[in-house]
TrEMBL record:
This is 3-phosphoshikimate 1-carboxyvinyltransferase. One of its GO terms (biological process) is chorismate biosynthetic process. Gene3D superfamilies: Enolpyruvate transferase domain (3.65.10.10). Keywords: Transferase. It comes from bioreactor metagenome. GO terms for molecular function: 3-phosphoshikimate 1-carboxyvinyltransferase activity. The gene is aroA_33.
Amino acid sequence: MDDSEDMRATRRCMEALQAPGDALPLLDCGESGSTLRFLIPLSLVLRGGAVFTGQGRLMERPLEPYARLFAEKGVAFTQENGLCTVKGALPPGLYRLPGDVSSQFITGLLYALPLLTGGSELELTTELESGGYVDLTLDALARFGVTVSYDGGRRYRIAGGQTYRPAQVTVEADYSQTAFFCAANALGGSVELLNLNPDSAQGDRVILEYTRRLAEAGEVTLDVSQCPDLVPALALMAALRAGERTRIVNAGRLRIKESDRLETVTTELTALGARITQTPDSLVLEGVSSLKGGVTVRGHNDHRIAMMLGIAAAGADAPFTLLDAQCVAKSYPGFWSDYRVLGGRFEEVSP
């Protein structure tokens, strides 16, 4: 498994939480939103709080659900000058969170609440989006000896006094990264995708169904409320459905990722000749027969945008220049090596 920047950030912060000393630890989350949101509640349980920092757009991404919740629980929460500081103790009880901002807030609490002395309930105040990630959380908790009762709707019941037990597990293949090679195949490639779990809880496993739908004639509407990370790969495939319209809807949360992904997908694919219209929470694409080369596009320090543009070369009529290509290291450091092994051609040039 590639040792990505996000994985290193999580390990680094976990080590800092275990370091000796009475002061609040400083946790540098890099650009990892999952590290930040997962560890804020855990830091309160393990160390009585922490000071969090990060890089890029990380500290601009929403933390309001925690801020509101902690105010109710008497936990201090401040966010200023690129730092987020939390201090206090999480009490057992009822925790209410919106389900349509990010599933990472839910996962963070599900990691922390079993360690409290008493039982708790987690109630969602809105419909859950990206529910597959919460399913993965529940599966991971169970594998390490922690039980959570879920009513199938908006409520989770968590017994207190639980402990995590060591376990040997195998991490299954990632459908989120697989999406880019699905796009490569849709553009004429023949990449064999191995070891995918057809029964996975990953919401992004829908990439296989959505790829099939994009191969059919006629207008297609894709709801990405449960799989927003698929949008760059889906948009690339849709851009090359010559003469066909595709609507990618319920995608508003993409505006608060490493980049504003609705904007960057539109800007960069348009530079390559795609026909895209964006709304506040959707994309409408009118398919063209090929993309153009001879231009310069940017990854916007967003790993999924850079991977989308790398695969887009398969549908372009001439080479083009991609700036910020190495930002793929956030989640897939070996992307360009695999790209070359699979037949992709590129040369690195100095700025």
